[in-house]
Amino acid sequence: MLVDDSADQIDLMLLALRSMQLDRPVATFFSGEDCVAAIESGRVVPDLVLLDVNMPGLDGPATATRLRGLPAARNASIVMMSTSDLLSDVERALEAGANSYVLKPMAERTWGQVLAAVTGYWYDTDIGWQL
To answer: Is CATH 3.40.50.720 what the domain over 2-123 is classified as, yes or no?
Structure first.
């Protein structure tokens, strides 16, 4: 599941995931509210949520808190993504229930590199998602 208020960021992430030939369905949402509603309605049962920190309305940490209260998402791995490396932002995300905090790619890294590392860990290395 990809959640980001920027259509451009979602498009770049989808391109990177397609190039990786990740054999998993990917649901995309442009707001925390839509993400939560999709899970509450049963349309989506996530195992990995890539969640933007800074979104209008229900921001990333608030969305993570809501997800942790939903039975269908309680055990999902939540990876917060941001351009901010402020310790206060990282702490807030982790306190809200995120499993990890990843910097969005800047000039020296691409979405392909970032998502390969994230999915490589959460799908290949960490087997907790299988529970």
So the answer is: no
